[in-house]
Structures are given as C-alpha cells and as structure tokens.
Write a structure and sequence with these properties.
This protein has one domain: Glycoside hydrolase/deacetylase (TIM Barrel). About 40% of the residues lie in helices and about 15% in strands. The chain is built from eight helices and nine strands.
C-alpha cells in the first residue's frame, strides 16, 4: 500500500502551472501551495474545492516567502519568524479547505525549505514547532533520515516517509540539487520502474549506483514537469499492476 502525492495549486493570477484538474483524478494526496512560494487565494480555493470533491487528502505545502524564486532559494531566516510563516500558511490553506468541507490533513515543506530541513536543525525545529502549535495531530511528510523527521518524532508528531519518483538521489539519500542537470529523472520508463521498485522493494538506485533503502509511505510525482499527468497515470497503473494498493495515508 502506498500514497501517491503531487504538488498542486502552484499557479498565480493569470499564470497557470501544471494541470491540477487532471492530476486530482490520479493522485491520492495533494500538496497544495499556500501563497508564499506559489498560489494565490483564488487558486487555493479552487484547488481545495476540487480536491475535496474527489476525496483527495489536502496537504499544506509550506515554503519560504519567495514567489520570484518559486521557493527554491534558501533563506537564512530567524527560526521564530519561520515558525510564524509556516503557521500562517497552514492556517490560510486550512481556511479554504474547511469551507470546501475538508481540512488540511498533513504538512509538507516545499523546495529549498524541504532540502534545508534535511540537515538544518534550527529550521527543522521551526517547522516542527509550527505544526505542534497549530495542530499536533497533523502528520509531517519528509525525507527518511532527515533532521525534520528526527525532530518531529522526538516531539511526538506523526511522520510519513516520502520518496520521489522523478528526482535523482545522492548516495547519502538526499535529493540531487536542481542546479545539477541530472536532478530530474526524465525518462518516463525509468520513472515508472523506479516507482514500482520503491513501493515493492523499498529501494532506489542513487546516481552513483548505490542502492538506497527507503521504505516510503508516500510517493511524489511532480506536477510541474512536462508530461506530468500522463506520467502520474502510468505510475499509478504500474503500481496497481504490481499489486500495490494506492490510497491516502491519512
């Protein structure tokens, strides 16, 4: 059994990004932008409504206040300010989710913040504190072995381990930097094969050939890559064909 998630709600004003409607028919959990790295109130409301209609779990994808950089630039923030920014984002998305008849079910950092809290203890603590203060029953979606996962578990929060269908891994189990041309796995067949292996064997091959043990509970397929919808459909079908039940983790 595994959850299939994707980043949605990343358009802004007149600028769409990705096919939210089509992906909501495929994924079981939606990491919805909260207006800081992407999204705006109208986008948030529309995507939460569509997710609620389809029974897709709504997750708050929180990030740095960085619209121009799409949240993919590290910001050396005061931990107190970062915690407040995360609380603000969860609350904003939760408001739209609730009027749609649902609620935020989990929290996932985005982009540079996701990568930072793999090893940055202060920022990981800020994210954990924000979730604990807002709603300690909310699970945190994170990378296995990360500082975020460790601190969340120590704080008594639920943790959901995540792997990435279309992102390359370092031998240390972290994601290859997006500045590297090999950061994204672009061969659709390879993405599908990796997805099944991660779900069935709990393993993935790093860029140097090292086999990593992951044991993921949720699998991410990015929604902003070319051909994302068809790729997500192929991944879901391949998982089903391999006997893996695809369903939300919460």
């Amino acid at each position: 059994m595994i959850d299939l998630n994707s980043d949605l709600g990343e358009g802004f004003g007149a600028w769409p990004l990705g096919d939210d409607e089509a992906l909501l028919d495929v994924v079981t959990s939606a990491n919805i932008a909260c207006g800081f790295h992407a999204g705006d109130p109208s986008v948030l409301r529309r995507v939460t409504e569509r997710a609620a209609e389809r029974g897709v779990s709504i997750g708050a994808q929180v990030g740095y206040r960085d619209l121009a950089g799409f949240g993919r630039r590290f910001i050396d923030m005061d931990p107190h300010d970062l915690a407040n920014d995360v609380i603000y984002q969860i609350g904003a998305l939760d408001g739209f989710a609730r009027i749609a008849g649902s609620a935020v079910r989990y929290v996932k950092p985005h982009g540079a913040l996701y990568n930072a809290v793999v090893s940055h203890a202060e920022q990981a603590a800020a994210v954990v504190e924000a979730v604990r203060r807002y709603d300690p029953s909310l699970p945190i979606l994170g990378l296995p072995g990360s500082e975020l996962v460790k601190q969340a578990e120590e704080a008594g929060l639920s943790v959901v381990l995540e792997s990435f269908a279309d992102r390359a891994y370092t031998p240390q189990g972290t994601l290859v930097s997006r500045r590297d041309p090999l950061a994204v796995v672009r061969d659709p067949d390879a993405v599908v094969e990796r997805s099944v292996r991660m779900a069935v064997e709990g393993a993935v091959q790093a860029v140097d050939g090292t086999v990593l043990s992951l044991s993921p509970q949720s699998l991410c397929v990015h929604g902003d890559t070319p051909g994302a919808v068809e790729l997500a459909r192929r991944v879901r079908k391949a998982l089903a064909d391999a006997g893996v039940e695809v369903k939300p983790f919460v």
